[in-house]
Design goal:
The strands form five sheets. The chain has a six-stranded parallel sheet with strand order 2-1-3-4-5-6, with helices on both faces. Helix 1 (6-24) runs parallel beside helix 5 (139-147), helix 8 (243-251) packs parallel to helix 9 and helix 12 runs parallel beside helix 13. Among the domains are: 6-154, Methylthiotransferase, N-terminal domain (Rossmann fold, 3-Layer(aba) Sandwich); 285-404, Transcription Regulator spoIIAA (2-Layer Sandwich), CATH 3.30.750.200; 409-464, Beta Barrel (OB fold (Dihydrolipoamide Acetyltransferase, E2P)), CATH 2.40.50. It is α/β, with parallel strands linked by helices and 466 residues long. The model has no long low-confidence stretch (mean pLDDT 96). The chain is globular and about 60 Å long. The longest helix is centred in the C-terminal third of the chain and has 24 residues, at 380-403. The chain is 36% helix and 20% strand. Bound molecules: 5'-deoxyadenosine and iron/sulfur cluster. Iron/sulfur cluster binds at residues 184, 186-188, 191, 193-194, 228-229, 265. Iron/sulfur cluster (SF4) binds next to helix 6.
Length: 466
């Protein structure tokens, strides 16, 4: 498996130093604005972009108008996110007219697709840097060239490599995201990810553990282990390393009190994983297990490699070992060829599993994927009708699931002030449910007992136990 060489890393460090020298001679610290779309992996990539920017002497701003450099880290999973990016790039044109030295970069999954990258290059001549996911570690060099008035276009196709040693500018404690593997080999027929993120490659266990120890030392209490398909962790080592064995080691690290992970593929959930999850106290009893669809016929068209029955069996096994587990899933409505009867199977899965929350999407055609050429059965109107019904059924279940928490005392890791109400703190249960309650900001980062006094569809409210 390709690992970025020490020479290449040191070359990039030279660029970091050169840019730092330029910036340190300025009277005012230059500012960067970084906007991220998509999944947790992409957010982690942005933490690395920000880590490199910070090493190069940049500060950060939430206001585009104050920025000296703007970066859009894009997502290609659905068309909606792409449209927003195009809108945002378009809006920078006027800002650039007024601010000559402003640099604009577009990176990530969208521009890892050559045709899209070429389109951005042609349609928006004022974009200074276009670079794909595989070029992330070359960002210092890309930025150095852009500062020297070269337009940079770096979207080389690749199976992907692993680059350790990039600084990471994380959100403040208590939560840290740690990638354990990159890429995906599953080629679900609707999904663009395997084309833009390359083949599955696992980080060495020692590097992951070193990073977890480091964040523990910095005061982080919870780690979220990330991968497109975490259950395949270690498959590329051929030494018997499994995801479950990694989890056991992560749990041994002092200071880390909670361990979560995302995303699991239903076909790869092993009995070993279920029993490690059940027996390790630090592993949160939460599982995100994307079903995508309830019809075995459609699942086959999607290349998911499990049937509805097999999926339901897995859920049963998980629940037998962990009755308190919080289950969430992803669902695609309107996959090509899906009929109303197929959709009823999805509703049936919802009713049988009774997820706590679902993330549902209307199918979005992705150029270059096998599903893009498959025939559609339903009209847009029918798809939207099914989508609305899905939400209606699930909202009722979500509320009922949350109602089960009324009167219970839950251990909450306090994450920060509530987004909607500044006098209120917000945290999560072990199962990942959001709980809002009144309390002092000094509690942030602590695990405290909160009695649940009120429930909503999406969150819980409570009172701190004295
Ligand atoms: N259209 C709609 N949803 C999609 N997803 C992936 N590709 C598509 C697509 N083409 C959804 C899947 C996946 C989640 C991250 O995004 O449900 O689990
Ligand atoms: Fe996409 Fe399927 Fe891979 Fe998930 S497992 S990233 S849905 S191809």
């Amino acid at each position: 498996m390709a690992v970025i060489s020490k020479e290449e890393i040191s070359l990039q460090k030279d660029f970091i130093n050169k840019i730092y020298d330029i910036n340190s001679r300025k009277d005012i610290k230059p500012l960067a604005f970084v906007e991220t779309y998509g999944c947790a992996q992409n957010f982690n990539d942005s933490e690395k972009i920000c880590g490199m920017l910070s090493d190069m002497g940049y500060g950060f701003t939430e206001d585009k108008l104050l920025a000296d450099i703007i970066i859009y880290n894009t997502c290609a999973v659905r068309e909606n996110a792409e449209k927003r990016v195009y809108g945002n790039i378009g809006a920078i044109k006027n800002i650039k007219k007024k601010k000559e030295n402003l640099l604009l970069g577009v990176c990530g999954c969208m521009v890892q697709q050559e045709a899209i990258a070429e389109n951005v290059k042609k349609r928006y001549p004022y974009v200074d840097m276009i670079f794909g996911t595989h070029a992330l570690y070359r960002f210092p060099e890309i930025l150095y060239n852009a500062l020297n008035e070269k337009r940079v276009f770096d979207v080389e196709n690749s199976d992907g490599a692993i680059c350790e040693d990039i600084s990471c500018h994380r959100d403040a404690p208590p939560l840290a995201k740690i990638p354990i593997m990159y890429g995906c080999n599953n080629f679900c027929t609707y999904c663009i990810v395997p084309y833009v993120r390359g083949r599955e490659r696992s980080r060495k266990m020692e590097n992951i553990l070193a990073e977890v120890r480091q964040v523990a030392d910095e005061g982080y209490k919870e780690v979220m282990l990330l991968g497109q398909n975490v259950n395949s962790y270690g498959n590329d080592f051929e030494d018997g390393t499994t995801f479950a064995s990694l989890l056991k080691e992560v749990c041994k690290i002092d200071g880390i009190e909670r361990v979560r992970f995302m995303t699991s593929h239903p076909k790869d959930i092993s009995d070993e994983l279920i029993s490690v999850m059940a027996s390790e106290e630090k592993i949160c009893k939460q599982l995100h297990l994307p079903v995508q669809c309830g019809s075995s016929r459609v699942l086959k068209l999607m290349n998911r490699k499990y049937t509805k029955e097999q999926y339901l069996e897995t859920i049963q096994k998980v629940r037998e070992k962990m009755p308190e587990i919080v289950l969430t899933t992803d669902i695609i409505v309107g996959f090509p060829g899906e009929t109303n009867e197929d959709f009823e199977e999805t509703i049936d899965v919802l009713k049988k599993v009774r997820y706590d929350t679902i993330f549902s999407f209307i199918y979005s055609k992705r150029g270059g994927t096998p599903a893009a050429t498959m025939e559609d059965c339903l009209t847009d109107e029918e798809k939207h009708k099914n989508f609305d019904r899905l939400l209606e059924v699930q909202n009722q279940i979500s509320k009922e699931k949350n109602d089960e928490y009324l009167g219970k005392i839950e251990k909450i890791l306090v994450e920060g002030e509530s987004k909607t109400n500044p006098d209120t703190l917000s945290g999560r249960t072990d199962g990942g449910k959001i709980v809002n309650f009144k309390g002092d900001a000094s509690l942030i980062g602590k695990i405290i007992d909160v009695k649940i006094t009120k429930t909503q569809t999406w969150s819980l409210s409570g009172e701190m136990e004295k």
